[in-house]
Design goal:
Radius of gyration: 31 Å
Helix content: 40-55%
Order of helices and strands: HEEEEHEHEHHEEEHEHEEHHHHHHHHHHH
Shape: elongated
Number of helices: 18
Structural class: alpha/beta
Strand content: 5-15%
Strand order of the largest sheet: 1-2-4-3-5-6
Number of strands: 12
Length: 580
C-alpha cells in the first residue's frame, strides 16, 4: 500500500476528515455513506446531488455547500456509489421542487443513479438527471456508451449550484445543465499511470519519452500513445482537437486546466498560459481561465484540458458566491495582460562593458556548454540523491543563457557566463558559480589566446576567497570549494615554478589543475556535507560526490581542452567522472 489511508473504511474516514476540517459546511451520514451541506441557500427550490467513485478529489465533495451541491455520494476508490446511497441522500436533501442528479457517464454510475431516481419518483419526489459526457477521446459513433464524464463536471456543478441558489426550477436546472454539457469537451494526457491501491504498482506502464493521449480518469488507457512533444506543441494539439469538436457558438470560453493528481501547480499554470495563447490565436476569448487539480485520478501524472463555450450569463454564474471546501479561482479582466500574455525576448542591460577577453574565452564557453549538455542528466541524478534534484537543470540553463548572451551581444565567453549566472540563475549554486566566472573573466588578457598561469592562479584563489566570504564554505565541507581549492593550489604552484621549471605542473598547468579539481570533487563522496541542502540528508550523502564540485572540475577540464589540447587528452571523459 503506497497511499496513506487506513486499512479499514478509508473512504468513510476521509469523509469524516472533510467534515472535521469544514464543520460549518459538511456533515456526514455514515450508513449509507453520503455527505450533506449543512447550510444550503434558503432560496433553493431544488437540491443538487452528485457523486461517483473516490480517488477523484476534490471533485464532488469540494463543491459541497452553498453555491454548490446539496449532497455527495462517494463510492469506493474508482467504484460507483450504491443506489441506496444516492436514494437516501436524495431523500435527505430534497427541496420543495425535488432533486436534480448530476451523473458522470460511466456505466456503474448511470445505473445506480437511475435506480435511485426511480426510487425517488416512487416516493413522490420530483427528480431529473443531467448526464455529463465531455470526454473527447471516447467520442465514437459506434459506441453504445458514449463519451465519458470527466472534468467538465466541475463546470456543470458550479454553474448549476449558482443557478439553484437563485431559485431556478427543476426544469430550468436540467435544461441549463444539459446545455453546459453539450458546449463542453475535455481531453487528457498522462506521462505515468496512477498507482494501484491493490498492487502498489502503476496501473499501466509507459516507455520513456511517450505519453498516453486520451487517458481516462480511472486509469483507462488512452486512445493512442504518442511520442512526447515539447509542451507548447502538446497544448496546441490538445486545444486544436477540442476546438475542432466543440459545437459552434460565441467566441467566449471557459478554459479549465486540470491536474490528474501528481502534476504540480507550476506545470498547470504554465500550461494555462500556453492554452490561453492558442485560444487567442484561434480567435477565441478565454473569459475564464482556471488551473488546478479539480478532477484527479489518484496520483496519475498528467493533465486534462476542458473548454466550455459560454452562453450569456454563464460567466456570472461561475463568479457567483460559494461557500464550499474548494474555492475556485475568480476571473481576471478580459483585457488583462495575463489573459493574453505577450512573450518578449529577454533583454539584458549591461551597466558597464565586460572586460576584454581573448578569443579563447568564447571557445571555453562553447566547450563547457558541450560538457554540461553531456553530463546534465548525471548531475541531476546525483543531486536527487543528496538535494532537490535541480542542479543539472540549473547549471545547463545558466550555460545556455550565457551562450545566447554571447551570440546576441558579442560578450566574451567567460564574461557571458559570469553575467548569466550572477543575474539570472537562482538557487544557491548559481550566484556562487557567477562569482567564480567573474574572477576567471578578469584573468583573461586583452591580447593573446590563453590567460597567464599567474593570472589564473590569482583569479581562482580570489574566487575561492569570495565564495568563502559569501557562504562560509571551507575545504572538507563537501561543496564546490573542495574542487576549487586544489585547482587554485595547483595553479599557484605552477605560477611559482615558472616556465623554466620542467615539472609536469609547469608544462601543463591547466591539465594538472583539472586533475587536482577532479580528485577534489571525487573526494567529496567520502565527506559528510556540512553546508547546503545536502547537509540535511546526513549520512545518506556518503558515497555521493558533490554535483557542484564536479561541475567546477569540469570547468577546468574545458579550460585544459581549449588551451592545452594535447596534454588534456589524459583527462577522464566528463561522463565517466559524473557516473556514481
Amino acid at each position: 500500500m503506497t497511499y496513506f489511508l487506513p486499512e479499514t473504511d478509508p473512504v468513510l474516514t476521509a469523509a469524516r476528515g472533510l467534515a472535521l476540517v469544514h464543520p460549518d459546511k459538511v456533515e456526514v451520514n455514515a450508513a449509507p455513506l453520503f455527505l450533506r451541506a449543512r447550510a444550503p441557500h434558503p432560496d433553493r427550490r431544488v437540491a443538487l446531488v452528485s457523486g461517483g467513485g473516490s480517488g477523484h478529489e476534490p471533485l464532488h465533495t469540494g463543491l459541497l455547500g452553498r453555491g454548490g451541491l446539496d449532497a455527495v455520494c462517494p463510492g469506493e476508490v474508482f467504484a460507483s456509489p450504491h443506489n441506496r446511497q444516492i436514494y437516501e441522500a436524495g431523500v435527505a436533501a430534497a427541496r420543495s421542487e425535488g432533486v436534480l442528479l448530476i451523473v458522470k457517464n460511466y456505466t456503474g454510475d448511470v445505473i445506480n443513479f437511475q435506480i435511485a431516481a426511480e426510487r425517488l419518483r416512487h416516493d413522490g419526489i420530483p427528480v431529473a438527471t443531467v448526464l455529463v459526457d465531455d470526454d473527447l477521446a471516447t467520442d465514437a459513433a459506434d459506441s453504445a456508451t458514449g463519451r465519458r464524464g470527466t472534468a467538465a463536471t466541475v463546470v456543470v456543478e458550479k454553474l448549476l449550484g449558482a443557478a439553484a441558489d437563485r431559485g431556478a426550477s427543476l426544469v430550468e436546472l436540467q435544461e441549463l445543465g444539459t446545455r453546459v454539457v453539450a458546449r463542453s469537451r475535455s481531453i487528457a494526457v498522462a506521462a505515468r499511470a496512477q498507482t494501484s491501491p491493490t498492487t502498489s504498482a502503476p496501473a499501466f506502464t509507459l516507455d520513456a519519452g511517450v505519453l498516453d493521449y486520451g487517458v481516462g480518469i480511472h486509469g483507462e488507457r488512452g486512445t493512442r500513445t504518442i511520442a512526447r512533444p515539447p509542451v507548447d506543441d502538446l497544448v496546441r494539439r490538445m486545444a486544436d482537437d477540442l476546438l475542432d469538436a466543440l459545437p459552434a457558438g460565441p467566441d467566449e470560453v471557459l478554459a479549465l486546466v486540470n491536474g490528474l493528481g501528481a502534476t504540480t501547480d507550476l506545470e498547470l499554470h504554465a500550461v494555462s498560459v500556453l492554452l490561453t495563447e492558442r485560444l487567442a490565436e484561434r480567435g477565441l476569448r478565454p473569459v475564464l481561465t482556471v488551473a488546478g487539480t479539480y478532477t484527479s485520478a489518484l496520483d496519475m501524472s498528467g493533465f486534462s484540458l476542458t473548454l466550455t463555450r459560454l452562453d450569456e450569463g454563464w460567466a456570472d454564474l461561475w463568479t457567483a458566491p460559494a461557500e464550499t471546501p474548494l474555492t475556485l479561482p475568480r476571473p481576471l479582466g478580459a483585457d488583462s495582460a495575463a489573459t493574453a500574455p505577450e512573450r518578449s525576448a529577454t533583454t539584458t542591460s549591461v551597466a558597464e562593458p565586460a572586460p576584454a577577453l581573448a578569443a579563447g574565452s568564447r571557445e571555453v564557453l562553447d566547450r563547457y556548454a558541450d560538457i554540461v549538455a553531456q553530463v546534465r542528466d548525471n548531475l541531476t541524478k546525483l543531486d536527487q540523491l543528496v538535494g532537490d534534484g535541480d542542479f543539472g537543470d540549473n547549471l545547463s540553463g545558466g550555460v545556455r543563457r550565457a551562450v545566447k548572451l554571447a551570440d546576441e551581444s558579442g560578450a566574451d565567453g567567460v564574461a557571458a557566463l559570469a553575467e548569466a549566472f550572477l543575474n539570472d540563475v537562482g538557487g544557491t549554486s548559481g550566484p556562487l558559480f557567477g562569482l567564480l566566472f567573474q574572477h576567471l573573466a578578469a584573468a583573461e588578457p586583452g591580447a593573446g589566446r590563453a590567460p597567464s598561469v599567474a593570472a589564473l592562479a590569482e583569479a581562482t584563489a580570489g574566487a575561492q576567497a569570495a565564495i568563502h566570504r559569501v557562504g562560509g564554505a571551507q575545504v572538507g565541507d563537501c561543496t564546490i570549494v573542495d574542487a576549487l581549492a586544489p585547482a587554485a593550489e595547483s595553479l599557484a604552484a605552477a605560477a611559482e615554478g615558472g616556465p623554466a621549471d620542467g615539472s609536469e605542473n609547469a608544462q601543463a598547468p591547466l591539465t594538472t589543475a583539472a586533475q587536482a579539481a577532479i580528485r577534489g570533487a571525487l573526494s567529496t563522496a567520502s565527506l559528510r556535507p556540512r553546508r547546503g541542502r545536502a547537509s540535511y540528508v546526513g549520512d545518506h550523502a556518503l558515497g555521493v560526490p558533490d554535483p557542484g564540485a564536479l561541475a567546477v572540475a569540469l570547468l577546468f577540464v574545458a579550460l585544459a581542452d581549449i588551451h592545452e589540447p594535447t596534454m588534456a587528452t589524459r583527462l577522464p571523459a566528463p561522463g565517466y567522472v559524473t557516473v556514481l
